[in-house]
Amino acid sequence: MSQAEPHQGAHPHATSRRNACLALLSAATVGACASEGSHAREAAAKPLPPLPRAPMVLSTWNHGLPANLAALELLHGPGVTKSALDAVEAGCRVVELECPDMTVGLGSRPDRDGRVTLDAAVMVGDGRGGCVAFVQGVKHPISLARLVMERTPHVLLVGAGAEQFARECGVEVALPTLTPAAEAQWRAWLTEKKYAPKINIENHDTISMLALDAQGVMAAGSTTSGLAYKMHGRVGDSPILGAGIFVDAPIGGAICTGLGETVLRTLGAHLAVEAMRAGATPQEACEQAIDRVIAKNPHPENYQVGMLALDYHGLHGACAVQSGFTFALQTELHESPSRLR
Ligand code: SD4
Asked: Which residue owns the Cα nearest ligand 1 atom 5?
């Protein structure tokens, strides 16, 4: 795909270790796509482009499309006062409210005891981060994670303590319930109770997001219900800095999705950022990190991990263990033609 060419729909490319990732580029997304490994390597050989004047947002899975739009909206236009962190929070909140895959937010599938427990994290390039894990009844865990970063001396709050902090901040904590759809699926699962924690392409889940604003500030976020029917108390990679998300200025950021245990064992996002620090392009960094995940976790045919990386020049990379990993990149906002003025 030429860099100037608008591209619509799913775009297969060969960056995964086992197969291919899919780059999801919306009709509103044009240009600057270094998602193919060869593009990224060519770009690395050339002098690096100047710091981007236009902001960009990169997210996991199909739900990255609406999330990116909400995020980028905050970063565009004259007199913009919102930051990359505001954008990440706004984008993730979209999926927390509406997630057809039932894998983010209060409408998610529960753990094996029938309780929806949520994890989230935010991080910015100066090393600050906030995380919440194993929280129930919180509509927007991504915002609670940000509050942990901004209002406490801590990085990670979990469970009842995190919920208490939410109430203290005036964040509503609802009584935990299941949506009718989630309850029906859980009850069907209970008939067999097969505990097989595999995340594959049928289980599109976590939204993880990287945003780079026009001031060259980068932020990352992730929010998830984790594995469906997990053990009560299980926490994955998403709320752990260095595992599910990591950002370090002026190197770049990386985010993950997939089976969290495999990423926790390798600190995948940190690996990718350190690879970039050592000179890898974002694409090479994702490939190296995914190689490590596969090396340290047997039977890669049984799990999926997708990784995205972005550097401060606006180059991005993507790689996954298996085919079927989609991501969304948004660099521009477009207004649709209208019939009425
Ligand atoms: C977890 N990494 O809790 C999350 C889930 C996920 O794609 O990202 N799935 O393991």
From this structure: 226
Closest ligand 1 atom to Cα of 259? 10
- Among 103, 205, 234, 241, the mutation site with the greatest number of ligand 1 atoms within 8 A of its Cβ is 205
> Which helix (H) or strand (E) covers residue 9, if one does?
strand 9-13
Higher pLDDT, 72 or 76: 72
Output the CA 233–ligand 1 centroid distance in Å: 14
CA-proximal residue: ligand 1, atom 8 (nearest): 257
All domains of the chain in start order, with CATH: 15-335 (3.60.20.30)
Close Cβ partners of 245 (under 8 Å, ≥ 6 residues apart): 121, 122, 123, 208, 220, 221, 222, 238, 253, 254, 255, 256, 269
Dmax (CA) for the chain in angstroms is 59
Ligand 1 centroid to 222 CA: how many Å?
10
pTM of the model: 0.86
> Binning pLDDT at 50, 70 and 90, where does residue 52 land?
low
**Residue 20 pLDDT greater than 60, yes or no:** no
Q: Whose CA is nearest to atom 2 of ligand 1?
A: 260
Report the nearest atom of ligand 1 relative to the CA of 203. Answer: 7
pLDDT in tens, 206-241: 999 999 998 899 999 999 999 889 999 999 999 999
The rounded Å distance from CA 117 to ligand 1 centre is: 13
Say what the pLDDT of residue 77 is: 72
Average pLDDT along the chain: 84
Which of 209, 232, 225, 263 lies closest to 57, judged by CA? Answer: 209
Note whether 95 and 207 are within 8 A (CB). Answer: yes
pLDDT of 139 above 50: yes
Contact between 25 and 7 under an 8 Å Cβ cutoff? The reply is: yes
Q: Is 206 a catalytic residue?
A: yes
Which listed residue (206, 262, 266, 326) is catalytic? 206
Helices 159-168 and 141-151: crossing angle in degrees, nearest 10, is: 80
